[in-house]
């Protein structure tokens, strides 16, 4: 044993105890005749004291050689500290050191091991093992563990069984973004890494497992946006003999449990909102409802006048930004520039100041009178002192742009409070979405999602209108989970593949095993998956997932610490029956 | 909700309750005017009754159409059963059915869904989703979940933090058996799937994580022996500031906890045995100590006489098989044939019958007198009524052969009881082992294992004699876990790579990140990994791991259910910058 206690547990009750500690030198303060060292481990920091008068000469001298991040072991006596530090649990004591053993020296670290470090992202990633010593990263990993354990306990207590599904599976044409693995034993053939265990969990339902979950790595070889990783973790769940309502209840229960256990927050029953409503009201299928700023559609009044921009538009829609009625012309112009950025893509913006005296001043006063503007204010819910921002154009695009503006304003106004949690369900997603590029419909969720029976008749005539038994859980403007009731009979599944443009042969070659399984007594079933990385980041009040992942990859999919991916030997390629092209 | 109760929970206390159940038709017995159906789900079986007199006509008729494995939902009343079945929890009641809803029909399954099935291995694997409905497989998966949860709870309670390490890592030349993954974004480069998270867990120790664990998939592309899988699961653990003793104590504690919680068995403190002792006494570094039959080395007496076979041998060694002194000549010959099989490889075997009257009768009476044989009996611990079997030849090979014979005899004699658990630690493994093929030493455990300081001086002169701080946990003749205290300083790690035949450049290219990390304050650390698949199989009293894995692969590494691996599109290969060779 290298220690009798850790660096976070000693306090006044231990005074006069002989202890052995081990850890890292956080910092030392050499006052000549006295030398203090902060000793750090995962559990905390304990102050050590080396005193010319009270310490042995060689121990006292050795302490002067300690550099930052040296690993040491000490023996000593717990004594009362003169200058107490009420901010840390060990702040009332210090250790008068009698023995010092340097376990390992350290080069000067390339960045400071402090909560606020001087290391940039790149250098932190290269030396991730040092970055992990910092509280923000270390605590994020501990937090992730705690969340995962709570998930497991909660689901296990509800009779869910965690089943490990395979990582070496089959590539599908759907799987344009599959990572593949050449097989040595099966020449010219490849495994794929799962983008999700979807078909396996459905087969477990066919197999009578009844309630399945798994916290599992998934893989997607896609161009990485800022906060995506090629490997990510899902809480993957499936239940048999359930309807949508049952699934929503179980996983709402899980989420409420997490909020309560992890954050100490009790939330009301989750609101439910249809996809259609979410799109009309927030321009977004994952609305952040921590704040209002709901959309007001202004077509009626806006198009009744001679303003050509609005008259040419499919949709005129606005939001009221609270308390910014006094924005200067410069501030407004900056915001107009912001919505014109290519990432947002609006061509212009109309604004209406709602004066405190109940009058209005707009950028379109030439076309609209006070009555018109009063109507806009009513529709957008604007109060005196607010500002209404109005966008116009093609309906879908304009909603998307206004949603971006809504989120931007909320951020600027501090309405997206990381300590506030506003979950909801978005339900009744469309089954299919039209892909302009390929000119055909794709499954919005995946091809195993069941259409609502009452919409089945629209599949031939108006496929875009068919709603699915699909749902997303949304938390603070992020989709943290999504799922559906699945198709569980062969005929419907075959039909679905047909509508998605599969030939009968393709469907059979790729998913024959699943359709075969459906012929042997498949129960009705459904489920969902949470993105664990995102979930813990949001629960942790963070915007980015990266510090909740021990060894993340960069935007090129590289691990810069170990320098992967890398080239491999010619002989290895040969064994795998492949060549570099 | 498709059900008010599951099929395992109704009993006499529910009589007269209206219930809704859903599940699979296990079997039906049609007696003309009466029809019984056993309805099955994960939780049990409930008997349904359709009665011409008491059921509605259409329900009664519909029940006659039900085939095996149909999925149905029923409503009905719990009534007392006439012929009670005390063997199942629901055996006192049955459900008088008032409504029947066929949720899904089923083709006749290709094998019976019974504990003892008529399906062979191949067909069971092809229809694994049906196989999972069978109790032995279903219960194995539930059992695995229970073990994994207990492991997680136990380690979490000891402050271990589960950290997910990456799956897309770097291939190493050591990794001849790496599965690799071509990178789309990094042309001509490959990730590798981890054979274990070894270096990452060490980096977590450098990062101050202090106590790490992870239940994690690992991958090895090796020719599959009967009971190996290309993807397998480890309970991977590491601790900082510990010595070997600390690690043995923690994981002995975990194993005792599992035996107690899962099996209700209390075991004594685990015996510890050196590798050297295990090899000399059992011919095996994972001895099954549920039974004795320890080796007796007979060189002294055996070589004192004129028996040329023994005189030419490096080692003469025997075991006493209890109670088989009355084996017939035919039975003995069969055993001699058995040790001559190529898998064992002995060239012959000497035997000594220990008669009840204290005399001996051996196959080498020509050379050895009763005194000699009495000495053999004493050395091998043979009692009257036992039989001594003696092998001879090169020491290592002969020990291996005798070990195989010992295990075979124990199996035949019923000494390997699946309900008995005899764990132990084997310690002081050699650091290196000589590989005849390459003509050089390899790391027996892995290159990160630390040599015992007191043996360091032998590294140059007698590398095979250097012992490592390495240990295995052995349970019932299986290695279920193994680990070591690691090297934690750059100089020793460099030296180790040198002894293992790495050039300085190779070591740096492959493991530079680890040696770099050691320069920034690496704490002393060590750990181990358990094989979860094997552990649960042994705890479950089974010889094979396959039924503890939901979707195992066959001996060619194929998933015959989904038919993977498979060919992939030319366009996909092109995107990955590879060609089939």
From TrEMBL, chains A, B:
GO terms classed as biological process: aspartyl-tRNA aminoacylation
Primary enzyme class: ligase
Transmembrane segments: none
Catalytic activity: tRNA(Asp) + L-aspartate + ATP = L-aspartyl-tRNA(Asp) + AMP + diphosphate
Single GO MF annotation: ATP binding
Classification via InterPro entries: Aa-tRNA-synt_II, aa-tRNA-synth_II, aa-tRNA-synth_II/BPL/LPL, Asp-tRNA-ligase_1, Asp-tRNA-ligase_1_N, Asp/Asn-tRNA-synth_IIb, AspRS_core, GAD-like_sf
Domain Aminoacyl-transfer RNA synthetases class-II family profile: 144-552
Known EC number: 6.1.1.12
Positions contributing to ATP binding: 220-222, 229, 479, 531-534
GO cellular component: cytoplasm
Region annotation Aspartate: where it falls in the sequence: 198-201
Binding-site residues, L-aspartate: 174, 220, 445, 486
Keyword list, A-Z: Aminoacyl-tRNA synthetase, ATP-binding, Cytoplasm, Ligase, Nucleotide-binding, Protein biosynthesis
Signal peptide residues on this chain, from the entry's feature table: none
Role according to the record: Catalyzes the attachment of L-aspartate to tRNA(Asp) in a two-step reaction: L-aspartate is first activated by ATP to form Asp-AMP and then transferred to the acceptor end of tRNA(Asp).
Family statement drawn from the similarity comment of this UniProt entry: Belongs to the class-II aminoacyl-tRNA synthetase family. Type 1 subfamily.
PANTHER family associated with the record: ASPARTATE--TRNA LIGASE, MITOCHONDRIAL, ASPARTYL/LYSYL-TRNA SYNTHETASE
Assembly notes: Homodimer.
Protein's recorded name: Aspartate--tRNA ligase
Species assigned in the record: Flavobacterium gawalongense
Annotated gene: aspS
